[in-house]
Model the fold of this input.
Amino acid sequence: MCGIIGYVGARDAVQVLLNGLRRLEYRGYDSAGICISSAEKLHIARSVGKVSALESGPVLKKLYGTVGIAHTRWATHGEPTQENAHPHADCKGEFAIVHNGIIENYAELKQMLIEKGHVFRSETDSEVVAHLIEEFYDGSFEKAVRNAVSLVAGAFGIVAAHRGENKLIAVRKSSPIVIGIGNNEMFVASDPAAIVEYTRKVVYLGDGELAVITPLGYTVKKMSGEKVNKHVDNISFSLSHIEKKGFKHFMLKEIFEQPESVGNVMRGRLKGSEIKLSINVDTRAVRRVILVACGTSWHAALIGKQYIEKYAKIPCEADYASEFRYRDLPLSKDDLVVAISQSGETADTLGAALKAKSHGAKTIGIINVVGSAISREVDGGIYLHAGPEVGVASTKAFTSQVVALFLLALYIRLQNGGLVPEDAISELKQLPAKIDSILDNAGQIQRIASEIKSASSILYLGRGINYPVALEGALKLKEVSYIHAEGYPAGEMKHGPIALVEEGFPVVFIATKDSNYEKVLANISEIRARKGRVIVVADVPGVALEGMADFIIEVPRTIPDLSPILNVIPLQMLAYYTADLKGLDVDKPRNLAKSVTVE
Ligand code: M6R
Done:
């Protein structure tokens, strides 16, 4: 949610900042802006829409300098207008800031500043920071920023520039900030993807830390002013991981990366019939597991709940993080709360993990982004190692999350003296090759996409472990193609959604040959009888389905518990190809952002 980048060094800062913005654009694309600081003035260029609009604007062409900050916005306070685009400056144009997060007390601060004579030009919460810095400035830029942010409540990653100073100041509370270390040049950003082109040596700011960044280095301090020695990390991915590598969109590339990403989440964790996880938590004393997540990650949690109950034999709940954090649920040290998040930044999932921690529960994360906010707060966890996921619609993270949850359930089972079922490990190992064979079926899925692209609504139905797959298939389609889609438990269809079905109404079924299979066949017949258009994802497309479906997408067989990992792949592809056929911007669907760092 909002991307920020800053640069100090000897290069043309405009080019460095624009390159960074392009890589950050998946975090928000309502507007973009850049500020170059010189001895004379702060030069600010902003425009509504994508980075390309900023780039082609007349002002940018005339800009040159070696220190600057930039921002790509996902609007929270105020519409996506030029006035509301970042960077925001103070009254005199001496200070400029870019901000990621939410300033909860901005209304009071704004009122206070207006009473002191400050003039505001935007409707954003962020602009107060620039005016607060102006208010506190008495010759020390650092002191002014420190005093300004001490008044701010909420979540923020802020980078500030001051006219005439070859220096940037960054502050972090909840929203991520990473400093990139170069040779006589330094970078700062909300996400390492923005700077990996220039350096892989990075320092992650901790909560409540402030960094003074000059071309020659950085100093990190606590808000009290006490210096902090920071560990220098290496970005684990390279530029090629965040490029499209010949694919038309990141979403398609990431769908096709799943044989590898599913292999990566297992790597080093399967040893004979043992599951090796360094989760840093003793699960033997756990009496209840609560999985918290949002969106696609919550769908993975719904599958994980069934794994934990079946294999670990522990009661398990899967809750929306946004609901869990405000629920009066008694929690204790006997509870294990698992925060599932691709980005590791989702505000509600972070809030849920912090709540669990403060109530004494054990916490672990199932996270993709190494070093992210959630991964720092939890007691331990499982990294997905899926590589950067750039497409706003989550695909490869989902299949890796499901595998990680399966491993976690087996791990707890082993810790409690149980055995891993014989076929589980061998079936896990076969998943990458089976996913590969589904990807070979792109032609058929494209044909189906061309049949459904004009639909106004589609129903996705599944049962048991594949009910969350129906939810995920529907979410994927609506996110990228803007076709209304609803996932439902197939058995519930008769209690309402069947009213939607008329001749030609598309219904997607997940029909895996498990204990629910016959019941799903009966549900298909019911749709057929009403002349609905039936698309079935099936692992045994035999006689039972013949004549019952308009389209049958065949997937390889595995044990039913792992079938969601295979069944979801054609649904991701169906969503992608439908959106692409409609000519939509698949990687940047309207109104969405990759990391939702606001509640
Ligand atoms: O980074 P997270 O896994 O915490 O993100 C959670 C959701 O915001 C995310 O899954 C969202 O629903 C995606 N756009 C789904 O494709």
